Fold these 4 entries.
Entry 1:
Amino acid sequence: MIKVKCAILGMLGTNCYIIRDEDELALIDPAVYSDKVYNALKELGGKLKYILLTHGHYDHIGGVKQFQELFPDAKTYIGKNDEKCLTDDYFNLSSRMAIRNFPHFSAELLSNGDVLNFGSTKIRFMETPGHTAGSGCYIADDCIFSGDTLFRQSCGRTDFPDSSPSDMLKSLIRLSRLKGVLRVFPGHGEFSTLDYERNNNPYMSQNYEDIY
């Protein structure tokens, strides 16, 4: 069973997660470099095995390069359709925010259903396009790390380059159909559960499936 810690980072209050299983650690969506996060990783001990990215916007990837340099053995992953965000400041939105010299980096690419071994846990990547073309959720044990796809009673914006409102609604419907009692750890805002979102999130209503 994984353990989860959260740090809120960056100008947009991104939820950055550290997860642990046995002696392995993973870092999800490091928005910026943070001594707090670095110290937490060191204090937890074990090995940083993965840096996992839910999508390629600057407020979720800004700290990746520095963490890669500090933990060179950690493998970085992102959905295959967001690869361009790693080196294109138009798609990662850093140019929109007038951020100069945004750090570029490389990552290994994931497709829908890919599985990563993590301690005694399997982390499954689920493609959930909409906020970006390559957005995805990481599902491990009873946890969904949903990035900017699913928020408490809301969802991510779909007015950016490479966004798609219709894809977002389809992704939310697919998430709503997942089985089990699952906790939701979003990219911003409060934690939730999938049951709560099925019942209270208007964007998860089955009626939306008829729109497209």
Entry 2:
Amino acid sequence: MPPSKPRARANSARASAAGASARLWLVAAAVAVAGIAVSGYLLVSSVLDIAPVCLAGPCAEVATSSYARFLGIPNAALGLALYAGVAFIAAAAASRPSATSWAAPLLFGLAASGATFSAYLTWLQVAVLQAVCAWCALSAALWVVMLVLSVLIARRNP
């Protein structure tokens, strides 16, 4: 017996919602990959002790400041680790919808942590160093985007 029209519509709506949710997870993974690229570049610059190439702003001044490390760890390494964690979580949730129950709150926590730490670093650049690194600003913008995505994802996955 063919499914009734209301049941077919409900199944279609669920499939559409699942597809939209998967797309949000894939966008989150893509944003995380962009963050990995930015943080990776800044970390390599830090490890090699060379100033990052910057088309706008005094990146070298920010990258060599005493605020470029947190507890002795380069900020770029912390960012890289957070972005990698987000990429892993987003890829897992995009490929396995059953993972969204644990992945959505974890994504929000990591995105909130990244955005909060980036806001602090941005404040340091503006208020203390009076110099803003374009790479750092890009990373901060990526964390804001990730935070918005994590809220959208959490709303779809109660």
Entry 3:
Amino acid sequence: MIDLHIHSKFSMDSESDLSQIATVAKLKGLKYIGINDHYEMRHGELKYGFDLREFLEAVNSVQTDVVMLKGVEWGWDCEGTPPGFEGFDYISLSIHRCDEPMEMVQKCYEDFLKRTLRCVEAADFDVLDHFDFVRRYMPGNPTVPNHLKPIVDDILKVIKDKGSAIEVNTEGFSAYGEPHPPIWILEKIRKQGIPVTVGSDAHNLENIGRDVLKALKLLRNMGFKEVIIFRRRRMEAIKI
């Protein structure tokens, strides 16, 4: 079982100790975990982040039977140049910026998806996190409007051409019954043969591994045969 989206005290919104994360992950039956802390850039500047060298040393120092991979949740809005993230196992690209109010669903989705398309075209990354992130915060959690679905297709084409992966983020299960991205996008991903990974987006110890079994069962029932982990920015397939 895997969970490649766990936040530690290196994120500004988590207090989880790395050793405690490893202990809880083992108790929950996880074999592969990824520490995926926030490194958020906005308008070309670092909004919040962490010391990259200190992070790598801290993860490497943890004694555990669980495979603990070194990730970074690079939040980007397509402005500015990121650091190289040398020494990381994977770079997760996350788009958190939307300049339209969440209540204006069509405008917000259009702004968010167009920004996502620009970012995946320009970025050096391994996996796109929480594809439809803004859905979490919209009243009623609506999915992408029909007239904007061609932008989704454009995003998927870029990701496939780059040989990158897409995260199945389980946080949506508890809010509205399906993950990021939703099932209709996952079906497109499956048909195009784009690799997927799974992450809980846990910001505390309690949520480590949350709904990852549900996600793996969903993927298996949809016809996915494997999920992906990363080592030194190379994909490795894990059968499901």
Entry 4:
Amino acid sequence: MDTSDIEKAKAFIIVEIIEYIPNAVVSKTIIKKSTGNISVMSFDSGEGLTEKITPFDTFVQIIEGKAEVIIDGQSHLLESGQGIVIPAHLSNLIKPNGRFKMISTVIKSGYE
């Protein structure tokens, strides 16, 4: 993803750097390194992420709206401001509860 409009050493309002697009999930990478990445994502109503398993812990935080995060079959309803760590190697699914935006942080170090 293009990060050219995220200027380093300059403050920004995270919820304003990404917009909703009808019937779509939009992702914008803030930082991408070999040891991990931070992305902000917007989800239109009815859009979500498919179930997956990743080899790394992932921290997700809802920054606008609500979403259901299902980890290894256990449901967690998160609202704006709430976050959760999705453990590595567990199935997880992110489902919308209307439109929402979130930050996703993946740290890859420590798994060598």
